[in-house]
Amino acid sequence: MNPLDISPDATSSHAAWVFRAWLLAVVPSLLYFVALAGVGADALRPPGRAPDVAFAGYSILAAPLLETALMLALARLLEFMIPQRRRVRIVLLAAILSLAHRIGGGWHQVLASLWPFLIYSMVLTAWLARSPRAAFVLTALVHSLYNATLFGVGVLPLLLTVAAWGL
Predict the structure, then answer these.
(1) Is the pTM of this model over 0.85?
(2) Among 1, 18, 62, 130, fewest CB within 10 Å belongs to which?
(3) What residue numbers bound the domain in which 151 lies?
(4) At what angle do helices 86-100 and 63-81 cross, to 10 degrees?
(5) Per the domain annotation, does 45 fall within a domain?
């Protein structure tokens, strides 16, 4: 079954959509980061200084809401410009949002965000025809869970180190 062809119906569970999309976004991303860390090219950790509550709040709550609002507006524009090409709209939406991550990082950030934004774009596009509100909420939830997972995985070694040293 092609996930880009899935359309929600009356029996579609919101929780099931969020869970499946989150898994589809996070598992390949974690494997990508593990592979990069394995060759010494990167490490899965928050940027710069030690993470704080404000950074966590922004990453897990604010960024997904802001980016999903932007995605919704762009999705509507693409829907108007390319009405019959759903897959093209999904890929373009993901590419545009990934390229926007170049501002906060390098090309690595663009590549790292392309896959999850492809999944977010798929969820948003699939639900948009049925309910713009559901499309927004479900996409923001998937994005938030994704960021929380990466944040948790990135912070876990730091927390274990602090606990081990009794700091």
Answers:
(1) no
(2) 1
(3) 23-33+53-165
(4) 140
(5) no
Report the residue count for the chain: 167
Helix axes 63-81, 132-165, angle to 10 degrees: 150
Residue 65: burial class (beta carbons within 10 Å; 0-12, 13-18, 19+): middle
| Number of domains comprising the chain | 1
121, amino acid identity: S
Our separate counts of H helices and E strands in the chain read: 6, 0
- What is the full DSSP assignment across 64-121? HHHHHHHHHHHHHHHHHHSTT-HHHHHHHHHHHHHHHTTTTS-HHHHHHHHHHHHHHH
Tell me the pLDDT band of 53, cut-offs 50, 70 and 90: confident
Tokens of 116: 């999850």
